[in-house]
Amino acid sequence: MGEIEKVVEIGKLALRRQGATALTVADALLDQVDYEKAKEPKAPAAVAMTDELREALEMLPKVFGQAQVTEIRQLTETERRALGEEQRVVEAILKPLEMRAEAIKETVRHHMDQVALAEGKVDQDTETDRHGHYVIAAKGEPERVAIPGTDKEWSREYRAGAVSIEGHRLLEMYEAGEIDRKTYLAMTRQVRVFDEHKALAAMEKDPGLLPVFRKLIKRGRPVLSLYVRKAKKK
Length: 234
Description:
By secondary structure, the chain is an alpha+beta fold. The protein contains 8 helices and 5 strands, in the order ααααβββααααββ. 44% of the residues lie in helices and 11% in strands. The longest helix has 42 residues, at 77-118. Helix 1 crosses helix 2 (22-28).
């Protein structure tokens, strides 16, 4: 059975199921859809301890929460001054700290990738997430790396990628000559935007549209979230 025929057969079965929707059909066709392109992993950029950041960190204990207004009213001049100064200090700190927090996580992700390579857990068929990191974790089976001197560890945890339908690609396909006008009209409503209900009805009437529908499916890569957890006792 050819690729197109297989898509049609799988899609026809999905269309016949009770309560079928465009997303349930997309989910049934998922194995016939390539993953979205992954990014190339890069080492995180350094975050500099600038004079502005150092000054803001020194100021933070002095200004933090000095004017905590817990009722709805106008502010006094003193409160406005205090809040303005606190906001300046917090905003000077917040962005560099967020950048550094992400750099730490990315550094740990690279470490986990290298450990997986060294332990022979990576081959040419190993999946990657959207950032290009190896998917070694599985549902309920995270990767863990101890944080020395603590009872904590980093935990890289698996979540399946999202399935979505990129209806806007119909116009791109039509303009590129990949589909004809009849197909384009069959899966869009009058304002010419993708219509899930109309597309579903059109595919039920003409399963030959399923290969076109497949090209609209975006298969999100698995998501690997990094947390600090309490270490499990061995």
